[in-house]
Amino acid sequence: MKDLVYLFAAYSVIWIGLFVYFLQLHTRLNALSRQVEELAETQHRGGES
Amino acid sequence: MRERRSWFLWLVGFLGLISLYGAFLFAPRAKWPGPAGTQLGEVQRIFYFHVPIAWVMFFAFFLAFIFSVLYLVQRKRVWDVWAVASVEVGVLFSVLAMITGSLWAKPAWGVYWTWDPRLTTILILFLMYVGYLIFRGFVEEESQQARLGAVISILAFANVPLTYISVRLWRSLHPVVFFQNSGEKVAISPPMLTTLLVSILFFTLFTLALIRFRARVEMLERTLLDLGGEA
């Protein structure tokens, strides 16, 4: 039974670790994409005026 | 292009499911020795993910080494971006390799950590690459940062082959899976080997996708900085 606890812990650590990293990257990418859009919009407005 | 990427991600997902099936259902429980003459139980199945994770850690650091050399030769930003992405993913996998290794070591050796040659060299490797990420932060100017990073990455890579052969160079408790001419040998049946190889393939492709994703974020951050944004 104790064996299964170690096995479960190891697989959980792997998947949770990878998921958290992926989520963090995804959040950063979304924030960056938003900034790029804002910057492009500002430049577009600047070009019009 | 987008279609090809989606096929690739489907393939990685499919291989991930096959690896899980192999690790828990297809591969038989190996009769590997545990502490004091006992046998390891189900915990032995950690092996199907621990070994591939250690492999992709080496692979990511190898890629970082190649990208660093390319940066020093060509001085192109893209190589530095890929090197940073590879190191960060390699560091993540080294943490996962140490944790899963410790969770194996406790039932197998009776302790979570011991100053075994393999464990010690992997810890040094991890600290060297964490140093890479920290030292980069000390330098403001991008080209200097990239140059310093490339030099550290190339120097740190010298520890990769040493970590790999440490179980053969010194007396080690760590099991030897491939090329078993020294160290603690373990018996691997054909279904076990098949499961391990599928898992290695899955983690290799997954790592490539993760590095690519991280490089995309890094490139976007730098482009924003160039444009005067706040990355």
Structural descriptors:
heterodimer; A: 49 residues; 0% strand; B: 231 residues; mainly alpha; 7 helices; 2% strand; globular
SSE inventory with pairings:
The complex is a heterodimer of chains A (49) and B (231).
Chain A: H1 2-48
Chain B: H1 2-26, H2 47-74, H3 77-109, H4 117-138, H5 142-157, H6 159-169, E1 175-176, E2 184-185, H7 190-227
How would you describe this structure to a colleague?
The complex is a heterodimer of chains A (49) and B (231). Chain A is mainly alpha-helical and 49 residues long. The mean pLDDT of chain A is 86. Helix content of chain A is 96%, strand content 0%. In chain B, helix 2 runs antiparallel to helix 3 and helix 3 runs antiparallel to helix 7. Chain B is globular. In chain B, strands 1-2 form a two-stranded parallel ribbon. Chain B starts with a helix and ends with a helix. At the A-B interface, helix 1 of A face helix 2, helix 3 and helix 7 of B.
- Content-based structural category of chain B: mainly alpha
Low-confidence stretches of chain A: none
Proportion of β residues of chain A?
under 5%
Radius of gyration of chain A: 21 Å
Q: Domains counted in the coordinates of chain B: how many?
A: 1
Strand % of chain B is under 5%
Major β-sheet annotation of chain B: 2 strands, parallel
Question: What Rg of chain B is obtained from the alpha carbons, in whole angstroms?
Answer: 20 Å
Structure described in brief:
Chain A has 49 residues and is mostly helical. In chain A, 96% of the residues lie in helices and 0% in strands. The longest helix of chain B has 38 residues, at 190-227.
